[in-house]
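note to self — DONT lose this again. spent like an hour looking for the file last time. sequence + predicted structure for the chain T wanted, 160 res
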Amino acid sequence: MTKKRAAPPVNNLVDDRLRAAEKFLHEQIPITRAMGLRVMANDENGFVIEAPVALNSNHLRTAFGGSINAVATLAAYGFLWLELDDAAVHVVVAESSIRFLRPVRETIRAHCRRPAESELELFRVELRDNGKGRITLRVEVIEYGETAAEFEGLFVARSA
């Protein structure tokens, strides 16, 4: 009698993808290790990463603006990396802007909001048909339930 192998629990698959994303970022973008960057979530609402202020502080012991910008950029980049799930596609940020609204004191937590499915589909079609796709992604940096920064970036993906 042959036993069927049970499919791995969904949570294990999600955890594996999050660990793979974090490993990729640490290996391909070494500064993420020094920043203490951790991948926290990826679901229907978007992609979340965080980094401690203790490793990313300024002279006031709040989060350094450059670190906030980097974590926000990496949240959008990580979202696309997981969404595309294709090592042969190269992703770069072409243009970005950030608004700093309040200091971050403990944890830089960046949430890349999942774009509308129609935007993602247009991006995928451009990439498939032209070997290059563009998409604008938005990220909020949130601490204690309040928005501390708002990031918007134009990302370009290119088939290798």
